[in-house]
Design brief:
It is a single chain. The chain is mainly α and 49 residues long. Helices cover 86% and strands 0% of the residues. The termini are far apart.
Amino acid sequence: MARTPNYNYERQERDRQKAAKKAEKLAAKAAAKEERTKSETDTETETEE
């Protein structure tokens, strides 16, 4: 006898994986923004001296 599919579990797993991927992208974006801001302030400091 075949097992009945567990659609709710499959949907929850897809949503969990999607949320993890989204969080990873946001973290990378925040790190890139921080790095860009840091390099801009370093450049401004060098030009002021």
